[in-house]
Design a protein that fits this description.
Layout: E1 2-7, E2 13-19, E3 22-29, H1 35-49, E4 59-63, H2 69-86, E5 90-93, H3 95-101, E6 106-115, E7 120-123, E8 126-129, E9 132-135, E10 140-143, H4 144-152, E11 158-161, H5 165-175, E12 180-182, H6 192-204, H7 223-233
Parallel strand pairs: 1-4, 4-5, 6-11, 11-12
Antiparallel strand pairs: 1-2, 2-3, 6-7, 6-8, 7-10, 8-9
Helix pairs in contact: 1-2, 3-6, 4-5
Length: 235
C-alpha cells in the first residue's frame, strides 16, 4: 500500500510517500511562501521524483493538529480534495502522535511540546520502547508548570521534543526530579513521513475514513473565535 501524507501544522510544510514501512521519499520546506502556495507543487514534485501518478496512491493522510489553524486547514483540504477526486480513503493523524513517533526507543516517557505561547504548550505523554508506541495521557493545552507536575509523577526520565522543548527545557529541569533530556533539533518539527507511517498502522487496523470525515483537531479555539465570543459577551 502506497500512502501519501502531508504535514502543515507548523510553519514548516512537508509531504511524504511510504510503502510497507519504508519511506520512498519526503520533501520539507520552511520557505517564506505560505502552505497554500507551496504544498500542491511539493506534492507534484515528490510524485514526479518517485515516478508515481496520484491515482497510484492507495491512501491519503494528513496531520490534523493541534497546530496552526490556517496551516492545518490547507493540508486537510488538499488531502480531502485529492482523495475525493480519486475515490481514495483518508486518514487523520494527530500532530503530537507524529512528533512522538519520530523518537527512537527511549526507556522513560516521551513528551512532544508544541508552543502555544504564554508559557503554554500543546502536548501529550507517550512511551516508545522495544518497538511499542502508545500514548499514556490525554492531549492537553496546558501551562508548562502543570505539565512538569504531571511528568514528575511518572518518576522516570523525560525526553522533550518539538518546538516547545528548547523554550521550556530549563524550566522543566528545575521542576522535575528525574533527568529531563532534550531531543536533537531534527525532532523539533513534525514530519510527514511519521504521519504516513502511523497512517499505515491505522490502515492495517482498518481504521480509515472517507474524505468527508477528515476534520482538524484543535485543543483550543482560534483567536478569531475567542475575540468573537468576547465581543458577544460585552454586548
Amino acid at each position: 500500500m502506497k500512502i501519501l501524507a502531508v504535514e502543515t501544522a507548523t510553519l514548516t510544510a512537508s509531504c511524504a510517500v511510504v510503502e510497507n514501512g519504508r519511506v520512498l521519499g519526503e520533501l520539507t520546506t520552511s520557505h517564506a511562501k505560505t502552505h497554500s502556495q507551496q504544498l500542491v507543487p511539493m506534492i507534484q514534485s515528490l510524485l514526479e521524483l518517485l515516478d508515481l501518478k496520484a491515482n497510484q496512491i492507495d491512501l491519503y493522510a494528513a496531520s490534523i493538529g493541534p497546530g496552526s489553524f490556517t496551516g492545518l486547514r490547507i493540508g486537510i483540504v488538499t488531502v480531502k480534495g485529492m482523495a475525493y477526486a480519486l475515490k481514495k480513503p483518508v486518514c487523520g493523524i494527530p500532530t503530537l502522535d507524529a512528533l512522538a513517533y519520530s523518537v527512537n526507543d527511549f526507556k522513560g516517557v516521551v513528551c512532544p511540546m508544541m508552543d502555544a505561547r504564554n508559557n503554554q504548550v500543546y502536548t501529550a505523554i507517550y512511551r516508545k520502547n522495544h518497538g511499542e508506541f502508545r500514548r499514556v495521557s490525554d492531549y492537553f493545552g496546558i501551562h508548562v508548570t502543570e505539565l512538569a507536575g504531571r511528568l514528575d509523577a511518572f518518576g522516570e526520565e523525560v525526553l522533550l521534543l518539538g518546538d516547545g522543548a528548547p523554550l521550556h527545557h530549563e524550566t522543566m529541569q528545575g521542576l522535575i526530579r528525574q533527568p529531563v533530556l532534550q531531543a536533537d533539533k531534527a525532532l523539533f518539527l513534525p514530519r510527514a513521513a511519521c504521519t504516513a507511517l502511523l497512517a499505515e498502522k491505522q490502515a492495517q487496523e482498518g481504521s480509515l475514513s472517507s474524505p468527508y470525515e477528515l476534520e482538524p483537531f484543535y485543543l483550543r479555539k482560534s483567536q478569531a473565535e475567542r475575540m468573537k465570543e468576547l465581543g458577544a459577551s460585552q454586548v
